[in-house]
Amino acid sequence: MKIIHVVGARPNFMKVAPVMAACAENKRFEQCLVHTGQHYDEKMSDIFFQELGLPIPDINLEVGSGSHAEQTAKIMIRFEEVVQQQQPDLALVYGDVNSTVAAALVCAKLNVKIGHVEAGLRSGDRTMPEEVNRLVTDCLADILFTPSPDGDRNLIGEGVDKQKIHLVGNVMIDTLVRLLPSAKERWRSEALEQFSRFDRYCLVTLHRPSNVDEAKMLGSILSTLNTLSLRIPIIFPIHPRTRDRVQTLNLEPLSPDVHCTEPLSYLDFLALQTRAALVITDSGGIQEETTYLGIPCLTVRENTERPITMEMGTNILVGQNMDDLYNAAQEILDGNVKDSEIPPLWEGNAGKRIADIIDTL
Ligand code: UD1
Q1: Which one of 31, 188, 235, 277 is least enclosed by Cβ atoms within 10 Å?
Q2: pLDDT(145) > 90
Q3: pLDDT tens, 110-141?
Q4: Is 43 in the pocket of ligand 1 (CB under 6 A)?
Q5: In whole angstroms, what is the distance from residue 290 CA to residue 36 CA?
Q6: Are residue 271 and residue 142 in the same domain, yes or no?
Q7: Do 272 and 193 form a contact (C-beta atoms < 8 A)?
Q8: Same structural domain for residues 185 and 163?
Q9: pTM
Q10: Which residue's CA is the closest to the ligand 1 atom numbered 26?
């Protein structure tokens, strides 16, 4: 059976690694890895391949940045040729990025079976490009691998045939479990040396268009971080999208206790998460990683497609009201931290479950 895996953006790489590793154990499977090139910087892509032990992609479509339509269309045009040449039996697509939906559309038209890893997540907010990508991908997929029972419920509610849905757990946590020991050794790495003097710190990531694209919102988040940094140092690895906006929007300068860095590698960022007093983010994956690690997380969004991280985990949705963010951060720094648990099947074997299900096809 020939399986083609399609990845393109940073959060895809941690998800494909455990699935490829598990599939490599099965002699029936032949694998091909396609990188769309949606993310192309060394720090957004190459370093992840090295640290995660991923093979060099068999094919790189080198699409780069562009508007949503441009990026999606370029991936479709270039990926269609690949599918025609490779003739896979199954395409696996990951998460909710533009590369995911573009590859799914191509395969649906060429009658190639599609498996969606991380299916069923819904924020209910169609202004988010990722929500559109999730809805379309799940609608086209033949096999839907969900990370948590809410995913199954959402899909069933949308009329997806139960037979197609498989609750397998969280592949991102597979990678975390495997690499946590290596991450813990990174504390003295070159990238983190400058932070080793901090006993306590708050870790921040922001890149959602709804938070960073407009001056008013981004300005008020940065000003809240400035105020918070009077109490605790802040470490802020800046996503390229956010860096561009900070440079072009002419905002209040960041205080010296907000320490900005380039995007960090997987291991360095994981090392920072394990020791953080608090994480403030708008990322999807970081809501999950902090829940696994038991680190308090404040999510600067009005909704989340990962409600289990709030119901069981350490995540609190603070929305886009900066007073709420500030007050919730103070509570946590005062030691008022909510109880949390790791969701079922978030233990490191999701990739193996996916490979076993594919083997029955
Ligand atoms: C994408 C995903 C988002 C995911 C995020 C993780 C979509 C719709 N969004 O958002 O779900 O959480 O990746 O990072 O697919 N850029 C660089 N170098 C790179 C990549 C991007 O400088 O290697 C810059 C470009 O200016 C680009 C901008 O970042 O225009 C945004 O990149 P893009 O891939 O379009 O979306 P992300 O915001 O990264």
Answers
A1: 188
A2: yes
A3: 999 999 999 999 999 999 999 999 999 999 99
A4: no
A5: 28
A6: no
A7: no
A8: no
A9: 0.97
A10: 241
